[in-house]
């Protein structure tokens, strides 16, 4: 009798744990669906730089970039960047009976231009959708995002011809333009180029988990570590061959069904019965 109980117990527990094993972990690398540089030049920053501009030293071919930094005499020039990633990726669609779990989320930028002092780039959640510009260092068109405007005003913008201003120019409004929680950052020497892996926080992974199926919008700025020196972090944008990357590691877990839970209950009851009969 005890042998029969033990056999049923082992079979039930083995079946439950086999069903509960997670699928093999996988990785997907996403490039931005949009990126835009917010530049505070020319009368309050109404000129638009959409992450596609000619490098100042006239590199051939053109270098397409996003940029974070403060520079110029008195740090009067400021460039922040906004990016969007489409998380409605087929890779994240679980089969019936499975649930998606995000294990990690990592940002990488290929920095190609550096100057001035060491500094830090910080990335936060952008709390709005945005329209990437269609010009390079020119005035924004209606609906496009730039320094002063989340959506530049004009009759060509059917959604809101009056325009939508940032709460604070450059997207600096904490809690209104961008979130208060740091998601990722990179600190390094100024004289360094190539791929840079940003350090992610646990909040970044959680935000990606919550945003799967829609669009993840990010806002970033950069400052020198001493708070007073000039700093620029310039990297290739989505228009280049070295696009920014959002690397997501994930796996699928089986959602326990009533039948699986019944197997677990059977196994546990079997263990109790086996232990009780063994004591007798």
Tell me what you see in this structure.
The protein is of the alpha+beta class. The chain has one domain (22-255). The protein has 4 helices and 16 strands. The protein has helices spanning 2-20, 42-45, 202-211, 258-279, and strands at 26-30, 34-39, 47-49, 65-71, 77-86, 98-116, 119-125, 136-139, 149-151, 164-165, 184-188, 194-197, 199-200, 215-224, 231-236, 245-254. Helix 1 packs antiparallel against helix 4.
Number of strands: 16
Give the SSE string.
HEEHEEEEEEEEEEEHEEEH
Strand content: 35-45%
SS field, number of helical segments: 4
Structural class: alpha+beta
Largest sheet data: 12 strands, antiparallel
Q: Number of domains in the coordinates?
A: 1
Low-confidence stretches: 5-17, 44-62, 260-268
The percent range for helix content is 10-25%
What is the average per-residue confidence, as pLDDT, rounded to a whole number?
78
Radius of gyration: 26 Å
Ends distance: 13 Å
Which term fits the overall shape? Answer: globular
């Amino acid at each position: 009798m005890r042998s029969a109980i033990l056999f049923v117990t082992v079979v039930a527990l083995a079946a439950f744990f086999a069903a509960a094993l997670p699928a093999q972990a996988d990785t997907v690398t996403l490039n931005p669906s949009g990126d835009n540089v917010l530049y505070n030049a020319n009368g309050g920053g109404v000129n638009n730089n959409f992450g596609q501009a000619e490098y100042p030293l006239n590199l051939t071919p053109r270098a397409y970039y996003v940029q974070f930094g403060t520079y110029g005499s008195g740090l009067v020039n400021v460039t922040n960047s906004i990016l969007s990633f489409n998380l409605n990726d087929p890779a994240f669609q679980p089969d019936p009976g499975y649930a998606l779990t995000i294990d990690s989320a990592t940002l990488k930028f290929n920095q190609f231009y550096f100057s001035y002092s060491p500094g830090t780039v910080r990335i936060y959640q952008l709390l709005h959708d945005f329209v990437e510009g269609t010009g390079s260092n020119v005035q924004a068109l209606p609906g496009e995002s730039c320094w002063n405007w989340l959506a530049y005003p004009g009759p060509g913008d059917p959604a809101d011809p009056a325009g939508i201003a940032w709460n604070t120019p450059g997207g600096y409004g904490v809690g209104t333009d961008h979130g208060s929680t740091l998601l990722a950052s990179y600190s390094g020497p100024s004289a360094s180029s190539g791929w840079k892996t940003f350090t992610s926080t646990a909040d970044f992974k959680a935000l990606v988990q919550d945003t799967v199926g829609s669009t993840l919008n990010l806002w970033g700025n950069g400052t020198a570590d001493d708070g007073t020196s000039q700093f620029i972090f310039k990297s290739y944008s989505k228009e280049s061959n070295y696009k920014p990357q959002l690397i997501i590691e994930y796996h699928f877990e089986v959602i326990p069904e009533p039948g699986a839970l019944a197997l677990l209950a059977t196994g546990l009851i079997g263990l109790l019965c086996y232990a009780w009969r063994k004591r007798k």
